[in-house]
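Milestone M4 deliverable, item 7.
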Amino acid sequence: MADPQSDPGSRAAVQTTAEQKTAAQTTVVQKYGGSSVATVAKLQEVARRVVDTVHAGHQVVVVVSAMGNTTNELLALARQVSPRPGRRELDLLVSVGERVSMTLLAMAIEDLGVPAASFTGSQSGIITDERHVSAQVIEVRPHRVRRALDEGRVAIVAGFQGVSRHGEVTTLGRGGSDTTAVVLTAALGAAWCELCSDVDGVFTADPRVVPDAQRIDVLPLDAAAALAQAGSKVLAADAVEQARRWGVQLVASATGNASGSGTRLPPGPVPDDVVGVASDPLLVRVEGVGPDGLAGVDGAVRAWIPGPSGPFALVDVRNVHGELAGEEVATVTVVGRAVVTDPGRTAAVLAACRPLAWWASGEALTLLVRREDAAAVQRAAHAAAGLGA
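Output delivered:
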């Protein structure tokens, strides 16, 4: 895969050989999140699912996250050593988690009689820029992955990580394993990319928070991108953007269900009607500073919002390694053009939720609320937008 920045939106930038195009009819990429491989028993279940996909006639590339809360545990360990650990060392540290899960999964698959080989991000040809902790993929050279497939092996790739052109280990930030899976799908010319988690697809809201949330069987990629940007846990924003850019067919499935279940995400615009509610609960509102005053948190600022006393920054604390002073807040976003274009529906959502602040785009209405109120506001917004059962 060539640098998308040099040819934005063009599939022509993805160079494939005639052999790769033929293989695209049977090659699939599956990504398994940390909850899917949190224990040895779960990891073995994933191995059986992968083997079932092989027996169905597919070449399989598996992208795997670190087991359970491994990444958070490693970050906590780093903070015990240093209150502001260096980003380069953090990348080297947290990249260990995916290496553990990829090798164990390879062992489990081979134990079921199917050859497998595991690869780190650098071995897989995931080339990134120089920015540690939140690197961007600029090129993919999956030669070793392709060779493993041609040899009849399952190729298992450590998600969330890559290597800079200067040989430095980098990580891709929140949702980075999804991004790894999508860019590999594009570079290999694979038929589709299946994102597997403990939730069976994309719902109108998080079903663990909103009990009457409904699964969406087909969701256009533009709507998926809006939900991901708003904090949907099933979809990573950068991964969805990469899928839109390269025309990758996505499927969001539950690991415990057969391959192909869940939500299909074909290319397409945000629908006119309301499609869902998403929340980002781990934000800090920082006032009284400009962009220069937030040095060291580049990549973590989600938005600059106008306010009565001047603009304030919404900073994603998951990508800040150290202390950050500010008010703990959350956003709740209702996605769908109708919530913006229908004044009655806009008013109903605002009256039901009573946010600290709100703003609208052409396709979504975003509410700023106290972090402790986020769950209640999600339920109220879901009902007021007409998404209840």
